[in-house]
Specification:
With 315 residues, the chain is mainly alpha-helical. Helix content is 70%, strand content 0%. The longest helix has 32 residues. It is globular, with a radius of gyration of 19 Å. The model has no long low-confidence stretch (mean pLDDT 87).
Length: 315
């Protein structure tokens, strides 16, 4: 591994930490514009994190060490997920660990910790949110695995860097297997990031909220880390989707010029993707929690169809 590889790895981590709140602010701006409302500042997520990091930390009297450690574990999992996803370059020191199953495992580990922490303090809202979060995870993780396996069939590898490198060098064409997988991935990402139609990130109604119920008892720096981790998760899913289905612009190994050009290309793709996400949320309605299993089952079915199309037709 050369110096450029370590540089690209450090750059990916720093960009994820810095751009994740910016992506959230960008999506919030577009949602407001599409709803004909006054848009919040693009830097509002940074101001929120700054305020929370400087606020006093309040803990429940009977909170265990698990409750205290969960924000750091969740933040670390999301930061590591962003580090192993090849968003700028495929020449990464963490490439051996950048496996599709490992990525899904990181998301699952964060989900388990935040669900246990929500139940740890014994509040009704926390338990409600934990049950809903585990339900969504139980249905979304198999669909996400099928999507990643559909892409891995084209490269004959489950390594994310190998998958991206292979897809980036294929002829520009519409592959039916990737088309099905792309629709499934979009549905899974909406559910995993608590976006409409599965959840509404702007609500605090106890009958509808999922993510907000999980972090309702947190405050201060713990809440800041969880909010930052939520932005990192959205950033990770966005980069994963762009790397799998729009891999052009990602730098090859040993290519300094490509690495220099990959940054503006990534920002451009994230900006377009954020605007499309806001548009998708604007034309969708929040579904009832009892319809979510049908929604994610459809995503799983589409991902499986993508795998079958690849196996039978080889495209």
């Amino acid at each position: 591994m050369n110096v450029l590889g370590y540089l690209s790895q450090i750059l990916e981590i720093l960009l994820a930490l810095l751009l994740a709140p910016l992506l959230t602010g960008w999506i919030n701006q577009w949602r407001a514009w599409l709803q004909n409302r006054s848009a919040p500042s693009l830097l509002q997520p940074y101001r929120k994190l700054h305020k929370l990091f400087h606020k006093e930390l309040v803990l429940a009297g009977h909170a265990s060490s698990l409750y205290r450690a969960t924000p750091y574990v969740v933040f670390g999992c999301m930061a590591l997920a962003c580090a192993i996803i090849p968003s700028l370059s495929t020449d990464l020191p963490l490439s051996p660990a950048a496996d599709a199953i490992a990525l899904v495992g990181l998301f699952a580990l964060a989900r388990v910790f935040i669900s246990l922490a929500a139940m740890d303090v014994g509040t009704a809202f926390g338990t409600l949110g934990a049950r809903r979060e585990m339900l969504i995870g139980f249905l979304a993780e198999p669909a996400l695995l099928m999507v990643l396996f559909s892409a891995s069939l084209l490269s004959r590898s489950t390594s994310l860097t190998t998958i991206v490198d292979t897809l980036a060098h294929r002829d520009l064409a519409i592959y039916p297997s990737l088309a099905f997988a792309g629709v499934a991935f979009t549905m899974v990402s909406l559910a995993e990031n608590a976006r409409i139609p599965v959840d509404n990130p702007a609500t605090h109604l106890e009958l509808t909220m999922i993510h907000e119920a999980l972090i309702l008892e947190y405050s201060g720096r713990h809440l800041a880390l969880l909010e930052w981790a939520a932005s990192l998760k959205l950033f990770a899913y966005s980069c994963a989707g762009l790397a799998l289905f729009f891999p052009w612009g990602i730098a090859d190994a040993l290519s300094p010029l490509a690495l220099l050009l990959a940054l503006p290309m990534l920002i451009l793709k994230l900006a377009l993707g954020g605007a499309l996400l806001a548009l998708l949320e604007g034309v969708s309605a929040k579904m009832r929690i009892f319809r979510v299993p049908e929604f994610l089952a459809t995503a799983f079915l589409l991902a499986v169809i993508g795998m079958l199309v690849n196996i039978l037709l080889g495209v």
